[in-house]
Amino acid sequence: MTYCVGLCLEEGLVFLADTRTNAGVDQVGTFRKMALFQKEGDRFFALMSAGNLAITQAVKEILLQGNLLNGNNLWNATNTHEAAVVVGDAIKQVYDRDFKALQKAGIDFNCNLIFGGQVQGEKPRLFNIYSAGNFIEATPETCYFQIGESKYGKPILDRVVNFKTPLNLATKCALISMDSTLNSNISVGLPLDLFVYERDQFKSDKVVTIDETNPYFSMIHEVWGEKLRNAFMDIPEPNWNGSRRGKTIISTAKRLGPVPIHRAKLKSGQNKKTK
Amino acid sequence: MTYCVGLCLEEGLVFLADTRTNAGVDQVGTFRKMALFQKEGDRFFALMSAGNLAITQAVKEILLQGNLLNGNNLWNATNTHEAAVVVGDAIKQVYDRDFKALQKAGIDFNCNLIFGGQVQGEKPRLFNIYSAGNFIEATPETCYFQIGESKYGKPILDRVVNFKTPLNLATKCALISMDSTLNSNISVGLPLDLFVYERDQFKSDKVVTIDETNPYFSMIHEVWGEKLRNAFMDIPEPNWNGSRRGKTIISTAKRLGPVPIHRAKLKSGQNKKTK
């Protein structure tokens, strides 16, 4: 599997992808799921992919070749939305080529992409592009997308990040979200590709590949678990005996009675015995 | 959907279930997913269910009726493992009755249970019972099971709980795990049924139904988010400029070079222009 997260914030964009792929547990590999496209001073795009690796590599190849799809490619698209249409069209081209054969083999056409960036004259934008080539765009209300094994790392994003979050803080959050996923699911693995895009830069100062030797990520991996355990220990335990110490957990719910307890039916003879 | 978590620890067992069911987003209901079975002084069992509600209710009905399945029911099983076989046999009975009709309707036979408890003379035991009626048992190395929407609430369990964790602390952890799930997935909802079983008690002192008015759960809901944000803010941000402040994130990975940046190919004319 895969875990990728992309954030679209006031100050810019954050892209983080793992690199583990697998076809069953006995065929595990390392493949890049992030691709970067730059025309300095004019545009910068990042693409992250989940799903069938043969499909996502084929899509990436079409984009790299720069062939025109309905007259456009990533280099001449007038804005990021138009560039997302190009990516969607690349998916449709792979679909047309491979779908029938995949269907015969009983394999889903599975392709889920996060694509974003900035074109001169526009703000940074972020899209989640589906298997059919259609897509949705992140907004200030919902400013991040996840693909792949998204659930483990969602709670921390939901609790910490919003559109106004500074870029470096959001980067930390993305890395913690990834660390939680790595800890709970072995189908997601190091190294990671991280790209932080500062609005209006049209270049890539902050691109780094992170493995177990990375000082910052190692710190997160060690310290976050510890901080989490400390935060956990800081919360009082449930109070079952009605004493004043701590909040009581004994309380009647408004709409629902207690769970019924089903008791063994004793035979009349047994009933007598116990009298 | 559903989220249920069951823990089997040195001191006893913890069972926590939500009560939201849905068949599509426009058919959301409240149904109990926990059932308790007691023969005082002799045995206590708890059952939690995820999957198709018609199937899991049918299984529960068979268990409540107490009919013998291959000679056994929950009341005469000699140990918890044998009781788990009874539960598995109840699933098989529902399968025999309904599978063909479900198949015709294109509906999976989907049933996933957590079942546990204690019979006099044995330690507490916990099982995860599958649709086929087969099951696995929790051990000191893997002391919890989750069913339903399990991923959101897994990281905190993985980080905090082990077999030696005191019962009340594990209860707190289960509630935090549930709170994370409730926050990130609307298919899981209040009220919750909580049952904490202390080893060798064979009764149910600690059974409570929790809704938004429960003082302890409300405190968890408010305070955990805050503690998590504080823990998050406590971790230094990535250092990109190589200064001494904080751990640097700029570091070369051992096995993998940086992500390549694909640059726009300029036509020779353009190249000349930029010279």
Describe this structure in words.
Two copies of one chain form a homodimer. Chain A is α+β, with helices and mostly antiparallel strands and 275 residues long. Chain A has one domain (3-229): Glutamine Phosphoribosylpyrophosphate, subunit 1, domain 1 (4-Layer Sandwich). In chain A, 33% of the residues lie in helices and 26% in strands. Chain A is built from six helices and 13 strands. Chain A has helices at 53-65, 80-104, 154-160, 167-184, 215-234, 268-274, and strands spanning 3-9, 12-17, 20-22, 28-30, 34-39, 43-51, 111-119, 125-129, 135-137, 144-148, 192-198, 206-210, 261-263. The first copy, chain A, has a five-stranded antiparallel beta sheet, covered by helices on one side. In chain A, strands 5-6-7-8-9 form a five-stranded antiparallel beta sheet. Chain A has a two-stranded antiparallel sheet with strand order 3-4. In chain A, strand 7 and strand 8 form a beta hairpin. In chain A, helix 1 (53-65) packs across helix 2 (80-104), helix 3 packs antiparallel against helix 4 and helix 4 packs across helix 5. The longest helix of chain A is centred in the middle third of the chain and has 25 residues, at 80-104. Chains A and B meet through strand 5, helix 3, helix 4, strand 11 and strand 12 of A and strand 5, helix 3, helix 4, strand 11 and strand 12 of B.
